[in-house]
Write a structure and sequence with these properties.
Structural class: alpha/beta
Strand order of the largest sheet: 2-1-3-4-5-11
Largest sheet: 6 strands, parallel
Number of helices: 14
Bound molecules: beta-D-glucopyranose
Length: 401
Amino acid sequence: MVFQGWNCYNNPRNENQNKKQEGYKMKRKLISALLATAMVASMVVVPVMADEETEAATRLPQKLLQKLLQKLLQKLLQKLQQKKNAEPVANPDLADKKVGVCIYQFSDNFMTLFRTELEDYLVKLGFSKENITIQDGQNDQATQSNQIDAFIADGVDVLIINPVNTSSAETITDKVVDAGIPLVYINREPGEDEEARWDENGWDVTYVGCDARQSGTFQGEEIAELENKGDADGDGVVRYIMVQGDPENVDAQYRTEKSVEALKAAGVEVEELTKQRGDWDQTKGQEITANALSQYGDKIDVVFCNNDAMALGALQAIEAAGRTVNKDIYLVGVDALVEVVENVMNDKMTGTVFNDYFGQAHTAADKALDFVNGKDVDNVYMVDYVKVTTENAGDILEMIK
Ligand code: BGC
């Protein structure tokens, strides 16, 4: 089966996906070639120069390299943009097929973008709007489980579920599979053991999401790539606070772990001042950061937030405390909400990571369609995250606005 989603992250768990990595590998080869060119250029020029000339000469290939990399990045973004705008061919036979969608909580701003795109794209594929029902789980597993029961009783043709608690995935899978309904999990990854069960039993169940490890790593790298590597007060240690999402969620776990790991991998000495759960919520992000600022004051160099909503809250607290992002403190989130990308462009936030809801929504809908058409579907599909910093925030904004 040919993968039809967007960029596919090189997930070691899914061997089939390795075959689908040609584009990804080509990009990496191109980047390596650019780096090699720049290295060769500097090696040729440097030995015959005096000190000042040497400096000027090394700056030259670096600038060239930067320009080439920027061009490359622009090309990649153009490709993303084209895929986002690509119109699928609508299938008239789908008009009477019923799709049930369960979202863990409508008030989550990232999931609002996701579900809007999902519904639009399902309609573009040929499902009729009246036959797509989207339910709000109100962040309560019991409520969501009742909604799933109702969808089963109604005999929907396919279910797309963003679970409230991933620990309930096994129970949910069992009852949906028993009812003979194919199932696409989105956004909250049920876990490797659960996914292995679908594979072993040959069930029509799949997960479409992103590998949260990648987003955490990108956050850490964004800080490590700063000139002072995030050491705002220059005392040799990067002290940070971690504002976590719901810790039951792998996105929260991996972002927390991998962001710090990436910073350490860049040779930075780090110290965690506090780590608290903000449940993906802006108000909680604001409260946690405000409290930490009054407790630790100028000691805080970096505020890591597992998502942008909490980072927006953190920004409010930082501004209220009279601190200035990118001057005496750094702040990163994940999602690339429009307001955050604008803030990154305007130097009010350090960076974020694009959580590609277009790619995830389209792949989820494509897989739902494949199930309805009786086609083979793999058990996991991963979509790439993209780093967002001042350099590419403008391009990202164009794509998401
Ligand atoms: C997003 C969060 C969102 C969460 C919901 C994460 O991938 O980054 O913004 O609240 O999913 O499960």
